[in-house]
């Protein structure tokens, strides 16, 4: 059988890994999907995933089924909408975020307020789970079959496997969470190519080096491919900010608000932020490859009270008042993020907004 011919693409050259030695790293658990092929290994990985989501809301996933060459090519493709698309075409595909409650299309720089009058220098291109639902910039079109294959593999072959482990961690049937996250027309999960551009020193000083404020994702889970620019930090279990270390060909998975509500607060929605990289990576652009996973739109964000774990441990997080559906939750959170007026909290360094009756915190 002849090899599949794919269109050529200019290689993305990532930054060298930092050699800074005085950075404080988060100690994240690594989930090995290869070990899930035996009953003993599956039980072991389910316990590791459960404990990691309960304690930190973050972990790595390795042996996921995509080799390094495939991931490298995906990064090559991810750079195209930033480096090979003219500004007028970007504007033509700009997302109508506030109007639609979705990010689909370009989020151009200067959209979000960071601090002290400084706006972001982050650009991303967002695409739906089913890429044929909308038109894409010309340069991306030859690569859409590869991107679609990546989206489906990430959702079905990786994240659904992770969800089975997390269902077992709640002592529920392993398909409990998977069935709530179908890969079909009821699900509005989406992918993102994301570019962080360096900022002038004056802006770094006015924001104290924060590129994106500390926040929790409103999704069920977020999957991002590890890349070498050291800028992502987690607000760890003890309240300290720590860096996420780069791990070759690993996915970094974090828990979002949807999964936190479904687990009654047992799985922790991870607070994370992006900051100025170390000195030896200063000036490098940071390219990201993401997949944001939702439940089906009709799912209500109520705790899974059939879980023996929740029955024993109790519920610590629930939406007050009427329980929103995923559709209401995702659209409202997307429309307001980064553009609503925030109120000062009594907690130091924290601002908040009220979304669907929920206090959504932003960490400076």
Describe this structure in words.
- By secondary structure, the protein is of the alpha+beta class.
- The chain has one domain: B-lactam Antibiotic, Isopenicillin N Synthase, Chain (Jelly Rolls), CATH 2.60.120.330.
- It has helices at residues 39-55, 68-83, 87-92, 97-100, 144-169, 176-180, 201-207, 257-262, 308-313, 326-336; strands at residues 30-32, 58-62, 105-107, 113-115, 118-119, 122-128, 190-196, 210-215, 221-225, 232-235, 241-243, 251-255, 272-275, 286-293, 343-344, 350-355, 358-363.
- The strands form four sheets. The chain has an eight-stranded mixed sheet with strand order 1-2-12-9-14-7-6-3.
- A hairpin with a 5-residue loop joins strand 15 (343-344) and strand 16.
- The relative contact order is 0.17.
- The model has no long low-confidence stretch (mean pLDDT 92).
- This is Clavaminate synthase-like protein.
State the main characteristics:
364 residues; alpha+beta; Jelly Rolls; 10 helices; Clavaminate synthase-like protein
């Amino acid at each position: 059988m002849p090899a599949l011919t794919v269109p050529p693409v200019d290689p993305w050259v990532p930054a060298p890994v930092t050699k800074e030695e005085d950075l404080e790293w988060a100690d994240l658990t690594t989930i090995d999907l290869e070990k899930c092929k035996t009953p003993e290994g599956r039980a072991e990985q389910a316990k590791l995933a459960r404990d990691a989501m309960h304690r930190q809301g973050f972990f790595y996933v390795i042996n996921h089924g995509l080799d390094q060459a495939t991931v490298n090519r995906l990064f090559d493709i991810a750079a195209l909408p930033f480096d090979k698309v003219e500004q007028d075409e970007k504007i033509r595909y700009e997302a109508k975020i506030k109007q639609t409650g979705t990010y689909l299309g370009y989020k151009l720089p200067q959209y979000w307020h960071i601090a002290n009058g400084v706006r972001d220098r982050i650009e991303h291109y967002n695409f739906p789970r089913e890429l044929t639902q909308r038109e894409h910039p010309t340069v991306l079109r030859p690569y859409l079959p590869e991107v679609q294959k990546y989206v489906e593999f990430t959702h079905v072959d990786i994240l659904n496997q992770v969800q089975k482990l997390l269902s077992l961690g709640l002592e529920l049937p392993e398909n409990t969470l998977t069935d709530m996250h179908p890969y079909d027309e009821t699900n509005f999960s989406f992918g993102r190519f994301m570019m962080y551009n360096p900022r002038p020193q004056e802006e770094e000083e006015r924001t104290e080096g924060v590129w994106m404020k500390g926040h929790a994702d409103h999704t069920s889970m977020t999957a991002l491919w590890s890349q070498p620019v050291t800028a992502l930090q987690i607000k760890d279990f003890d309240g300290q900010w720590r860096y996420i270390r780069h791990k070759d060909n690993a996915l970094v998975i974090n828990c979002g608000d949807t999964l936190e509500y479904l687990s009654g607060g047992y799985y922790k929605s991870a607070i994370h932020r992006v900051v100025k990289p170390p000195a030896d990576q200063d000036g490098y652009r940071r390219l990201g490859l993401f997949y944001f996973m939702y439940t089906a739109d009709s799912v209500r964000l109520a705790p899974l009270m059939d879980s023996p774990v929740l029955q024993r441990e109790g519920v610590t997080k629930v939406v007050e008042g009427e329980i929103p559906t995923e559709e209401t939750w995702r659209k409202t959170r997307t429309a307001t993020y980064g553009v609503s007026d925030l109120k000062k909290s009594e907690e130091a360094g924290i601002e908040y907004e009220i979304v669907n009756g929920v206090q959504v915190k932003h960490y400076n």
